[in-house]
Amino acid sequence: MKLLKIKDRHMWTLFVLPGTILLVLVLGFPAFQSILYSIYPEGGGTSYTLNNYSILFSDSVFRQVFGNTVLFVILSVASHLLLGLGVALVLNREIFAKPVFRLIALLPWVVPDVVVGIIWRWMFDPVYGAFNDLLLRIGLISTHVQWLSSPKLALLSVIFVNLWRGFPFVMLILLAGLQSIPRVLYEAAAIDGASRWQLFARITLPSLKKMLVVALALDIVWEVRRFGLIQTMTQGGPGNITEVLSTYIYKQYFQFFRFEYASAVAVIMTAALLMVSLPYIWMISQEE
Amino acid sequence: MVKGFKRKFFSGIEIYGFLILVSIYALLPFIWMLSTSLKTEAEAFRVPPTWIPIKSTLDAYVSMWTKKNFGIYFLNSAVISLATAVLSTFFGALAGYGFSRFVFKGRKFLIGFFLATQMLPGVLLVGPYFKILSKFGLYDTRTGLVIAFLTICLPFSTWMMKGFIDRVPDALDQAALVDGCSRLGVFFRVILPISAPGMVATIIFAFLLAWGDLLWVICLTSTESMVTVTLGIARTVGEFQIIWPMLMAGALMGGMPAIILYLLLQRLLVQGLTAGAVKE
Amino acid sequence: MRWFRISIFAVLFLGIVIGLSTFANAQEKVALRFSDWHLTESPWDKTLADAMALFEKRYPNIKIELEPVSYKDKEPKYTVELAAGKGPDIFHVHAFSLPMFFDKGFAMDLTPFIEKEGGAKYLEAWYPLCMNMMKHKGKVCAMPGDYMSMVLVYNTELFKAAGLDPKKLKTWEEFLEYNIKLTKAPERWGIALPGAKDPGFELRFSPFLWSFGGDYLTPDHKKSVLDSKEAKEAFKFFVELYTKHKVMPPGVTSMNPQDVRTQLAHRKIAWEIGSGWTAPIVNAINPELKAFDVLDAVPLPVKKNKVTTIWLSSWVMSPNTKHPKEAWELMKFITSKEMELNWFVKNRVTSSRKDVSDVAPEILNDKFASVIASQLPYGKVVPQIPQWPEIVDAFTTAVQEAMTEMKPPEKALADAHHRINGILARKK
């Protein structure tokens, strides 16, 4: 347990308060206003109502969009963690041209996500896109595939691009985490004759646990907010197959001017996200 | 011995095979971007597409700099992103340290609160945010954007830094305190240097977040003198025309500062001071 | 690690100083903020910059600040600013998004200015249909800009090679036959109509619906009439061009107008539904095609009604402007006869002014503009109600569902019909 000096106990304010004050001051009013908006009647007015919420829950499109979001977030986060962890583990070893590979694995991250969407959308074009052209040339496919307009493939294609764009973040955070696992632990275990898998399961994973939870937590929030990439690639189509909450809110707010309804959707999204996050907030805030 | 060699060799093949596959995946769009950026506008639309430009030209790069005020865009983006990255990492480290080392009432709530501030979508926040900024005369300024990005990055930076600082044994703090160091002294002299890899990750994260944002830049600025690189690139995609070579040239050049930043910091990312210093 | 600390503080300081020292220069001239998505597009950017320079020369007390915004980002930007009591003094939007702007109070009532210019007599220069769309509760709240009808733009060489003459085209049945003959998949398709959720969709789909005798809504805009026999027939005809007859290239549901023009520029399709802007853009995409020579335009086919969609843009003055008098001078300037002709000469968009589009020899002698102008009397506009963007979104969703065979056309259309009725029934 921590040995806190008595005079030291209140020092936490010095560390925690600057950030807290900034967040409360700057975000307090906007957050309050958007929550308030959600209980105004649509089209303005001063009375309060829960009408926006009842519209929302009875809307089949909203339910579909919610489901899409869950699927998108789960698949995105899982694929990010798997690939990110895999690459981080490999790049933590003594390998040839390590700095080069590390830079390559970081590259997708430097492209802003709206630009990623624009570029991949063009690469995915069924007739003159580079992606089909390449796969045809190496013989992996025999006809032009409609990556973004086929109902079966659209969401997966978007997730494929999101994996491309998102794994470097997880990779970097885990790589930084791996750097600080003391080598002596491995050496000691190796002397005891532990297999590679045992080393991974007994030393690497437990030491990375906190970083994994942080990566998981941040990535979930991140993927729920993911907007530019989907908007530029599919705008939610075909039908509503790739419509997720973030694009749905954007559309309701900026295209339909339904400020109040969009706020209600956002409040529901936030509430759902909070519920999902509670376990890892609890986990991360546990004392050692 | 033969067995050992075989095992090593094959695991090597697996690893390099995996790395090469990942590299192809990561690089493919960049190859395409590079190829397109060197094409003429007409060749960019060729069917089937060419991977090696028939006629290479640097026109797209030149146009980005001459027809657009790319120099100003770069300056804006660099100032905004660097300020955001440094400030949010610094305050994130402060808060992360506070959360990591002190037990106080409402700690769990605050940790959750930090993350929860990021759960409301920006679409809703940007309107009220605009009102605040214009009230304080910060609309269409870099400061306004930095404050905006800071509130987005800070919670993430705090969580990341807390994660890294948690792994630094408290014994180090105690030792320094016993030696007569103040808490701030411990933070600056012990914690920050040891968490260098984490800080690098956090700085790059915040830098890229501010660099790549579009919605806030669109809504919180108005004049050409405030345009960022990402906005400049996005504007080459109009409804009535898409200039692919310029878009690709812009995207490639727009990625350079982040790469340079990473190359400058990578030394810290890898070695840190950790492996040797952190011993139980 | 001292450099680390020093650099942290240095950048911290630098960031704040640069941020704070950016602005706040007092200006003697009246500054007007002018925003238009065309400012992000060439050659429009130059045309507008030149025009604004000319304006500044004529009004030395006014300074124009150009604020480019891309086509897709204009609504977010204007909404956020106008709702906060700011916004560019003059900005450009489509006429069909005006009801939403009016509804939220995002447009200045221009009637007092117009009264001073001579009232109804001043407005006589414009087509009545255009002026009507600028009105909100009897007040003129915007001024009309470009005014065009949708026509078929075709590649003369491909038609010649197929032995077809589009000038003889009369009915939609013939239209289908032509397309079947033109399609040589996977080298070439007859036509491509953008199916992405994009303002370009309704411009191109609506003529099918209206020509077949159907419509989206009842005249009072209270109910959907997409359950009519005609609407079903038109919807099915449109969808089957893709699913059954395969005269459209694959992936058309995710194409926007620019993708379609790209296909036209590369001879992947033989024609498309377009307007004045089509030839210049196609020419820019692929100069080798020689679009101005090779392309030509004909009116759309007819079933029950001879009808086409109208494209109309509009200029809005911010209700928050601090300089309404000067803003009105700018408004008058950009909608003047001189400038409207200028826009056509430089950018091929025809005008909402009768004294330009009806008489200017530049327009009457242009092979595209003359066809476009000839169709203006048959032009129809989509319903002018605030819910329209939501309605057309529901409808486009149905088109995509039917075209990608997620639902049979009948089911997709019926679902859209119910959804649209739900949108209209919602209390406003």
Which descriptors would you attach to this protein?
heterotrimer, A: 288 residues, mainly alpha, MetI-like fold, 70% helix, C: 428 residues, alpha/beta, D-Maltodextrin-Binding Protein, domain 2, 6-stranded mixed beta sheet, 4-stranded mixed beta sheet
Number of strands of chain C: 12
Q: Domains counted in the coordinates of chain A: how many?
A: 1
So, the CATH homologous superfamily of the largest domain in chain C?
A: Periplasmic binding protein-like II
Query: What fraction strand of chain C?
Result: 5-15%
Largest pleated sheet of chain A: none
Shape of chain A: flat
Indicate the mean pLDDT of chain C: 90
Helix coverage percent of chain C? 40-55%
Q: How many helices of chain C in DSSP terms?
A: 21
The quaternary state of the protein chains shown equals heterotrimer
Briefly, what CATH class of the largest domain in chain C? Alpha Beta
When the domains of chain C are counted, the total is 2
Question: Architecture of chain A, according to CATH?
Answer: Orthogonal Bundle
What does this structure look like?
The complex is a heterotrimer of chains A (288), B (280) and C (428). Chain A contains twelve helices and no strands. Chain A has helices spanning 12-37, 51-57, 60-91, 98-106, 113-123, 130-137, 154-179, 183-191, 196-225, 228-233, 245-255, 259-284. The longest helix of chain A is centred in the N-terminal third of the chain and has 32 residues, at 60-91. Chain B has 280 residues and is mostly helical. Chain B has a single domain, classed as MetI-like fold, CATH 1.10.3720.10. Helices cover 75% and strands 0% of the residues of chain B. Chain B has helices spanning 2-37, 41-44, 59-66, 70-101, 107-116, 122-135, 142-166, 170-178, 183-194, 196-212, 215-220, 229-234, 244-270, 274-277. Chain B is globular. In chain C, strands 1, 2, 3, 6, 11 and 12 form a six-stranded mixed beta sheet that branches. In chain C, strands 8-9-7-10 form a four-stranded mixed beta sheet. The radius of gyration of chain C is 24 Å and the shape is globular. Chain C has 428 residues and is α/β, with parallel strands linked by helices. Chain C has two domains: 30-148 and 311-379, Periplasmic binding protein-like II (D-Maltodextrin-Binding Protein, domain 2, 3-Layer(aba) Sandwich), CATH 3.40.190; 149-309 and 382-425, 3-Layer(aba) Sandwich (D-Maltodextrin-Binding Protein, domain 2), CATH 3.40.190.10. In chain C, strand 1, helix 2 (44-58) and strand 2 form a beta-alpha-beta unit. At the A-B interface, helix 1, helix 3, helix 4, helix 5 and helix 6 of A face helix 1, helix 4, helix 5, helix 6 and helix 7 of B.
